[in-house]
Amino acid sequence: VEDERTSGIPSINFNFKHIMSIEQMSPGSLVDVIGVVLTVDSPVTIQRRDGTETQKRSLTVKDDSNASIELCMWGNFAMDPGQQLEADTQQGGNPVVAIKAARVGEFNGK
Fold it and tell me: pLDDT for 59-104, tens place per residue?
């Protein structure tokens, strides 16, 4: 319920897609994803084509379609909230993430 205290809070609208449907999407498409975090890798430093370095962290997310996907967090997102997600999973938790406008990529033909 919106009132004078909450009316100033910005809202975000999601259009979540099942992970199993992402396989049919073209690389470069944008998709909203929600799911349970199963695994979180430690961050790694990646050298970009322009020679600069950035951080990358991979995580595996599963949704209610029972499909899972690897998501990559880049730059500052790899460190925060990536570090917190890694700590939560190491302590036995399975946090839920909602990701707005994830770009569909292709790796090794998939």
Answer: 999 999 999 999 999 999 999 899 999 999 999 999 999 999 999 9
Average pLDDT in the 13-33 region?
A: 94
Q: Judging by DSSP bridges, how do beta strands 30-40 and 53-62 pair with one another?
A: antiparallel
Rounded to whole angstroms, the Cα distance separating 86 from 11 reads 27
Neighbours of 85 (CB within 10 A): 19
Identity at 8, one-letter amino acid code: G
Note whether 30 and 40 are within 8 A (CB).
no
What pTM was estimated for this model as a whole? 0.81
Half-sphere exposure of 31 (CA within 13 A, CB side): 22
Query: How far is residue 89's CA from residue 39's CA, in Å, rounded to a whole number?
Result: 7
What separation in angstroms does the CA of 47 have from each of 30, 32, 37, 66, 73?
24, 27, 26, 34, 15
How far apart (Å, rounded) are the C-alpha atoms in residues 22 and 9?
A: 31
